[in-house]
């Protein structure tokens, strides 16, 4: 725990030195922190602390209860005077002394705590989505993780967004993930509006590229040395699966007439109708692993995680599947069903639940057209 030097220096120091009495005069003369947050503990009331940031000063009462640190927000200085803060802290100390501390209302959670509560929601997306969220917050907002949410300011949000300007889409994505976590915490904590309200979001141009020349694609796939990677890209093109959905496929999910995904990006299971063609694509990999469709002995996960990079990225395969399906006469709404997109209409979301057999002709139409386009050059050469 950290205290402060006597009043004449006004700097936070280690607890072995004398701590001050947090009076109105002392709090008023404290300089704002140059970086991060300085903490000043009261010499008389154990647990009373004044957090001093770059722009604000905030009173808290903090104490360990049942092995956990409980931090209770008292209020901002000077709206809450030193005398009022001291009286409030004494009241909390008495309550906790009588064993009522567990019932006391604690202050806002840290970003790390709020993130874990948000990710623990039972209906939240897949495990890969949770892992991705933890990773991006841990990398780009690492210095915020232990900050209470009410100490993350608008200026901090704007500055971090600007610091990531070299990757506009990534900057938007990270700060929007933060916004989602923050707003989830607002449901149960008294927090101001999310500081991302001050951000001017970067304009994002969606990557709508598709594979225009499927004959070139076929040549490129056939030239791959690794047969696992060849099958991976073939399955992507002929199913429209997302990259992670395909990478993590297990043989127990491959049935005679469908691929079953127990949890997907949109937070629900999904069954995709498949044809004999899909089994023929997967056949070369059957002997390689009893569990993973795309195994990798070098990977800690047991399956490949980074297939060989091509001119055509994985999501281009998904867009191409959708585009060719529509050009083959499949209705846009049915294409959305095959891609596991959430329908826009209430009817589509809640009432219309087409069976696999009803969707299978559309899958057949899409795959037939894809096969024709990938084999077109071979046919021309034979003729």
Q: Which regions contain 5 or more consecutive residues with pLDDT less than 50? A: 1-9, 13-17, 101-105, 377-383
Question: Helical region count?
Answer: 15
Task: Identify the CATH class of the largest domain.
Answer: Mainly Alpha
- Main beta sheet strand tally, sense and closure: 4 strands, antiparallel
Task: Give a nutshell description of this structure.
With 383 residues, the protein is of the alpha+beta class. The chain has helices at 24-29, 82-97, 111-119, 127-140, 154-163, 168-185, 214-222, 227-239, 243-247, 276-282, 314-327, 332-338, 346-351, 356-374, 376-382, and strands spanning 2-4, 12-14, 38-41, 48-52, 57-65, 68-77, 258-261, 270-273.
Fill in the keyword field for this structure.
Double Stranded RNA Binding Domain; alpha+beta; 383 residues; 8 strands; 3 domains; DNA polymerase, domain 1; four-stranded antiparallel β-sheet; hpI Integrase, Chain A
């Amino acid at each position: 725990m950290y205290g402060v030097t006597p009043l004449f220096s006004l700097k936070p120091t280690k607890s072995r030195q004398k701590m001050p009495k947090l009076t109105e005069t002392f709090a008023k003369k404290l300089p704002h922190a140059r970086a991060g947050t300085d903490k000043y503990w009261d010499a008389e009331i154990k647990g009373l602390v004044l957090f001093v940031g770059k722009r604000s000063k905030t009173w808290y009462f903090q104490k360990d209860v049942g092995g956990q640190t409980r931090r209770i927000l008292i209020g901002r200085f000077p709206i809450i005077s030193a005398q009022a803060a001291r009286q409030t802290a004494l009241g909390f100390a008495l309550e906790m002394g009588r064993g009522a501390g567990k019932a006391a209302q604690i202050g806002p959670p840290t970003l790390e705590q709020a993130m874990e509560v948000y990710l623990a929601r039972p209906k939240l997306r897949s495990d890969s989505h949770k892992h991705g969220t933890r990773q991006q917050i841990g990398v780009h907002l690492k210095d915020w993780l232990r900050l209470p949410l009410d100490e993350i300011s608008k200026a901090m949000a704007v500055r971090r967004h600007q610091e990531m300007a070299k990757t506009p889409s990534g900057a938007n994505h990270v700060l929007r993930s933060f916004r989602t976590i923050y707003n989830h915490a607002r449901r149960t904590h008294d927090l101001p509006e999310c500081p991302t309200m001050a951000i001017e979001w970067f304009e994002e141009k969606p990557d709508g590229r598709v594979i225009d020349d499927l004959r070139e694609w076929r040549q490129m796939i056939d030239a791959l040395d690794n047969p696992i990677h060849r099958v991976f890209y073939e399955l992507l093109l002929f199913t429209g699966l997302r990259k992670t959905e395909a990478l993590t496929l297990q043989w127990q999910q491959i049935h005679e007439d469908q691929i079953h995904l127990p949890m997907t990006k949109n937070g629900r299971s999904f069954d995709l109708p498949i044809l004999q063609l899909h089994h023929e694509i997967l056949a070369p990999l059957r002997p390689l692993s009893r569990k993973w469709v795309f195994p990798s002995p070098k990977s800690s996960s047991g399956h490949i995680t980074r297939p060989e990079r091509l001119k055509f990225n994985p999501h281009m395969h998904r867009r191409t599947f959708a585009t060719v399906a529509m050009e083959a006469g499949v209705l846009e709404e049915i294409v959305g069903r095959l891609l596991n997109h959430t329908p826009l209409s209430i009817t589509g979301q809640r009432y219309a639940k087409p069976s696999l057999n009803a969707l299978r002709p559309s899958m057949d139409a899409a795959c037939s057209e894809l096969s024709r386009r990938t084999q077109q050059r071979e046919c021309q050469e034979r003729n």
